[in-house]
Write a structure and sequence with these properties.
Blueprint lengths: L2 H12 L3 H8 L3 H15 L4 E3 L4 E3 L1 H24 L6 E8 L1 H5 L2 H11 L2 E8 L2 H9 L5 E5 L7 E9 L1 E5 L1 H4 L15 E3 L7 H10 L7 E3 L3 H9 L5 E4 H9 L4 E2 L9 E8 L5 H13 L10
Parallel strand pairs: 3-4, 3-5, 8-9
Antiparallel strand pairs: 1-2, 5-12, 6-12, 7-10, 7-11
Helix pairs in contact: 1-2, 1-3, 1-4, 2-3, 6-12
Length: 299
């Protein structure tokens, strides 16, 4: 029995499917299956029940899974103690929300490549809920999204906050901008959808000020939201640095009299059972890289 065989068994059992597990280990599906087969031969019993479409743990596989996790965790701890500063190699897949992708994600990648030139990074931008599912399924090594996560399998570490301000097109209000929270209900509210992290601060704001929205327009793209606001289709909020750049150019006006939104906490998230040194080292880099005040590349 080898650690590679245990790795193959563990990730095959805890990822969405064998293909995702093989990607995580940077090997082919056939190599993954071979390692699992070798482990089953050593044990003398199957760990998976296989058919043409899926593989499900046997009762023995279910019993052995926590023991495999313990052995792999101990091995990872040994390697960290042997050389905590060793350079990383292989591949890392991570997910970020749209705001992170438009602001400090390029800086994060540059810092990762400087510290670990042999590590190939594959970023994915999506809405927070979708990224959490991918993370839990083993399709991502970590994600940086609004948090903390409510999923028990995912750990969260706070790394920074993003601030948002209320805006609208200058021609929409002319000399009579809204000054009370309830006046927002009289206009169409233009935002990202409920699966985005910003719904956290929006729900808090609406509840705190007893506002019920009757008309709302959502779009998954933050740039499109900014464009609809600029066109005067409604009111909404944008990241502070982005919004104030558009205000300076005369495209939007800041609705300064409205009660402010609370800052949105962002977290570095990873699977609790993932004890690899890579995850912890990249979390430390993310803490140094985070900066939501960078002007988005779209403006």
């Amino acid at each position: 029995m080898t650690l590679k065989q245990l790795e193959a068994f563990y990730w095959a059992a805890t990822c969405k499917n064998f293909a995702v597990a093989a990607q995580r280990l940077d090997i082919s599906v056939s190599s993954l299956s071979k390692r699992i087969g070798e482990l089953e031969s050593t044990i003398g019993a199957p760990l998976f029940n296989r058919d043409n479409r899926s593989a499900v743990l046997t009762p023995l596989g279910e019993r052995m899974l926590p023991h495999a996790r313990d052995v792999l965790g101990a091995a990872e701890h040994f390697m960290r103690r042997a050389n905590d500063a060793r350079a990383l190699s292989g591949r890392c897949r991570f997910g970020v929300g749209e705001l992170t992708s438009l602001t400090w994600m390029p800086r994060l990648i540059a810092m990762i490549q400087q510290a670990h030139p042999n590590l190939t990074v594959e970023p994915h931008a999506n809405l927070g809920q979708a990224l959490e599912v991918m993370l839990e399924n083993g399709e991502l090594d970590f994600a940086i999204i609004a948090g903390p996560s409510t999923r028990t399998a995912i750990a969260s570490h706070a790394i920074g906050v993003a601030e948002f301000i209320w805006v609208a097109a200058p021609h929409r209000y002319l000399d009579d901008p809204p000054v009370r929270a309830e006046q927002v209900a009289d206009a169409t509210l233009i935002t990202l959808p409920n699966s985005a992290g910003t719904v956290r601060i929006l729900d808090e704001w609406l509840t705190e000020h007893h506002v019920r929205i009757s008309r709302r327009m959502t779009c998954e793209n933050l740039g499109a939201v900014a464009g609809m606001l600029r066109e005067g289709l409604g009111v909404g909020f944008l990241p502070k640095a982005w919004a104030r750049t558009l205000v300076q150019r005369g495209y939007l006006m800041e609705l300064v009299a409205l009660p402010p939104l609370r800052p949105l906490q962002y977290t570095f998230q990873w699977r609790r059972d993932d004890t690899r040194a890579m995850v912890q080292q990249l979390r430390d880099i993310a803490v140094r890289a985070v900066d939501f005040d960078i002007t988005p590349c779209l403006v």
